[in-house]
Amino acid sequence: MLELRNVSKVFCDLKAVDDVSLKLGTGVVGLVGHNGAGKTTLMQLVATLARPSAGAILFDGIDIVRNPDTMRRRLGFLPQEFGVYPNLTALECMQYFAALKGVRDPARIRHLLELVNLAEHAQRPAASFSGGMRRRLGIAQALLNDPDILIVDEPTAGLDPEERLRFRRLLSELGFGKLVIVSTHIVPDVESIAGQLAIMRKGRLLALETPDAILQRARGQVWQASVDAADYEALRGRLHVLQAQRQGTQVQLRVAHPGQPLAGALAVEPSLEEALMAQRYAMSDPVAEAA
């Protein structure tokens, strides 16, 4: 079990992580929030790449701030920017990372390259890979030591739709016996696989909830309406517009609001992304958010 106790991280005068406490067992956890919410900093703290300014982080009861090697032996980590050595092939990159992690089984390397659909490209220089292929190589190296906890930052960036589906399935399967933390701006990437969502804003943990609980709370707060295109700009200044689509002289809107925002507006079933936006808007000032 991973436990964070009142964890904070301060850079100069900026509190990137502010008094975060949570407990996580096995399964997939989606870490979601806007840019600058503190997601990447929080993952770096858990991955022992940075030390907290205050608080404690424990994995299976062991303080990983004082004993970082305990976590590193059991961790798989894929950062948002994964670099490769330009003169090494994909296979050589994997062999290098395997040596660093103490993995001596060549079959493990071959299996992981097949898992991420790179086996036929194993002898190609990794520097020649597309962004999506490098991302897949990064996923493979993160799994080399069969980690108990896997942390991935924006894992599907650069992947095509088929690869994204394959990777979501892989993460879901890994979550059966491991803790998998997925930070992403693409809510559909975690909507179908995450048992819990950790929602961050301005360095603070707002909630740790199941997707069903978030959807349930948002029901009755997402509305659909059709308005004249000429009226749209004025309405946009006072309503939390989630979607807007121009159709002739009309604009079809989906809006987050605690009550009926316009005459004729109909309550609709929210997507998880809309439910999260509705929750965010409920905690913010309408005029500031609309701006």
From TrEMBL:
Q: Which domain of life is it from?
A: Bacteria
Which Pfam families does the protein's record reference? ABC_tran
Q: Does the keyword Methyltransferase apply?
A: no
* GO MF entries: ATP binding; ATP hydrolysis activity
Entries under Gene3D superfamilies matching the protein: P-loop containing nucleotide triphosphate hydrolases
Domain ABC transporter residue range list:
2-227
In which family does this protein belong, per the annotation? Belongs to the ABC transporter superfamily.
Protein name, UniProt field: ATP-binding cassette domain-containing protein
Species the sequence originates in: Massilia eburnea
